[in-house]
Amino acid sequence: AGSQLRQIYDKIDNLLSGKPVQSAGRTVSVTHHPEGLQFVYYKLAEKFVNQGEEEVSSHHDSAFPIAVVASGIWEMHPQVGDLFLAHLHRKCPYSVPFYPEMKEGMPLEEYQRMLGYQVKDSKVEEQDHFLKRMSGMIRLYAAIIQIQWPYGNKQGTHPHGLHNGWRWLAQMLNLDPLADVTATVLFDFLEVCGNALMNKYQDQFWKLMLFIREDYIPRIEAITSSTQMGSLMRFKQFLEECLQKKEVPLPKGTLKPSFWKS
């Protein structure tokens, strides 16, 4: 509910502002330790990214409630935003976007970790699980860049607004695609952020969508094996429907004005 989100936001904002906050039955404050505030900035930013990786990946609708709190905290406490991007880029290099290359002499495990895979006891996670986590983080990022906390004291410009999404999309399409990964993250990003980008960039947006269909999809197809077609087919279907209707639907989980009365 909207009222619950306000309580969560206020509690985090109070903590970062140096006010005492109740947590797990005791009072905590960042003023209790000289490095307390820096530590909380770091851990909070990490927690937001973890929410994308764990919560949003399983429940796509949760992207916007988490994003609106993250965006509001970012606006009031910019250090959290910088650290959020740092954690996000480390865990999901496709949010940069960047495809790490394997350097000569680099151990395979180290390279797999650079690509965002979890590696435990020399075992790399399954592809489906990996893609699900990357999807969650991309979806959270796509939600954050388009949404602002509605109760900010200084309702100015977004701390990391929609133009970053346009830049991400352009940079993504300048990279050679990766099988499985590229189709997955493009679909996730456009399903969450496509409507907002369409409304802002209009004709330019539709030129980009046509470019993806005519030029970029064939390049993805050329490197995709028969066992990796799922994510590509889903992306192609989404793209065709959008171009046919000349409309990108509002993403599921969008917070409507009535939400804040709940």
Structure explained in plain terms:
The protein has 262 residues and is mainly alpha-helical. It has a single domain, classed as Alpha Horseshoe (Serine Threonine Protein Phosphatase 5, Tetratricopeptide repeat), CATH 1.25.40.510. It contains ten helices and four strands, in the order H-E-E-H-H-H-H-E-E-H-H-H-H-H. The chain has helices at 2-16, 36-58, 63-76, 78-91, 108-114, 127-144, 163-173, 181-201, 203-222, 229-245, and strands at 21-23, 26-28, 119-120, 123-124. The protein has a two-stranded antiparallel ribbon with strand order 1-2. Helix 3 packs across helix 6 (127-144), helix 7 (163-173) crosses helix 8 and helix 8 (181-201) runs antiparallel to helix 9 (203-222). The longest helix is centred in the first third of the chain and has 23 residues, at 36-58. It is globular. The relative contact order is 0.11. The mean pLDDT is 94. Pfam families: GLE1 (PF07817). Its main location: cytoplasm. One of its GO terms (molecular function) is translation initiation factor binding. Keywords: Coiled coil, Cytoplasm, mRNA transport, Nuclear pore complex, Nucleus, Protein transport, Translocation, Transport. InterPro entries: GLE1, GLE1-like_sf.
